[in-house]
Amino acid sequence: MYALAIHGGAGTIDRDKMSPDMEVAYREGLAAALKAGEDILKNGGSSLDAVTAAVIELENCPLYNAGRGAVFNSVGEHELDASLMSGSDLKAGAVCGVQLVKNPILLARCVMEQSEHVMMAGKGAEKFARLQHIEFEKPEYFHTDFRYQQWLAIRDTDEFQLDHTLASNRKMGTVGAVARDKDGHLAAATSTGGMTNKKFGRVGDSPIIGAGTYANDATCAISCTGHGELFIKAVVAYDISCLMEYKGLTLQKACEQVVMDKLVKIGGEGGLVAVDKNGHIEMPFNSSGMYRAKVREGEEMRVEIYKG
Description:
- By secondary structure, the chain is an alpha+beta fold.
- Helix content is 34%, strand content 25%.
- The chain has nine helices and 14 strands.
- The chain has helices at residues 20-42, 47-60, 104-114, 122-131, 139-142, 145-154, 228-234, 236-247, 251-265, and strands at residues 3-11, 80-86, 92-98, 119-121, 164-166, 169-172, 175-180, 186-192, 213-215, 220-226, 270-276, 281-282, 289-296, 302-306.
- A hairpin with a 5-residue loop joins strand 13 and strand 14.
- Helix 8 packs across helix 9 (251-265).
- The radius of gyration is 17 Å and the shape is globular.
- It starts with a strand and ends with a strand.
- 56% of the residues are buried.
- Residues 164-170 have low confidence and may be disordered.
C-alpha cells in the first residue's frame, strides 16, 4: 500500500485574503505535484523517486518559495537549499546556498548517490552540480514580481521576512514531500529559497537532516515547513521519529507533541507532513493554514489549505 503527502508552506493563510483565482492556482499546483509522485508509486516505483518528482513539480511552480519562485536575499539574488533521505538505508543528501540550480532537489540527490558526502554548500556544490550535468538557469528564470516587491519593501533595512504574499497573509513557502512505496520503504524531500532579505549565508532547517527532513523505515518520514531556526533548535523531524522509536508513540501522538506543544513553547510556527511505516499520514501545523495534499492507495486525493 502506497501513501504520499506534500506541502507548499505554512503560516497565516486566511480564507478571506485569498482571491478565488489564487486559491485555484495553489490547489492546482499541489494537485499536479501530488499526481507526479502518485504516478510513480501506483506503478510500483520507489518512494525516493516519488518524493523527488513531487518536489520537482513544486520547484518548477512559481507560486512556491523553492526553485523558480524563490525569495530574494539581501543582495537581490536567490540562494537555494534542499535535502532528501531514504528510509531503507538512511542515506541522505543535501545542498545549501546554491544559486541558479533549476532543481536543487536533484542536486541533493546527486550528493546522496554520486558522492561520499551528505551535505555540500555554495560554490563547491555548484561545481559538483556542473560535473553531474545538473541543469542551471539564468537569474531571470527565478524572478517573480511578487517576490521582488517583497524584497524591495525591506532591502535597505536589517529586517528579514518569512515568505508571505501580503503583510497580513504571511506564510512559509518551503516545499516538501513524504512517501511510502508498495515495498514499505519511506522517503522524504524538502526544498526552499529561505527568507526574504536573508544575509550572511543564512541557512534554515530545510537542508539539515534531522531538523527539516528525516526518513527511517522503522518509524516515519518527515518534511517540515516553518521558522527554520526554531525547527533546528527543536530537531523536529528526528524528534518525531525518536518519540515513535523509543517511547512507542503513534505518528499522530508524536506529531502532536512536537508541533502543537514543543514548538509552540519556544515560539516555533509552522507544520510538516509525515507518513509512518504503515502508511498513516499526518499533516499537523500550528499556524492558521498550510498548503498540503495527500493520497493513499485506493483513496481519492485531498488538497487542503485552511484549518478545519
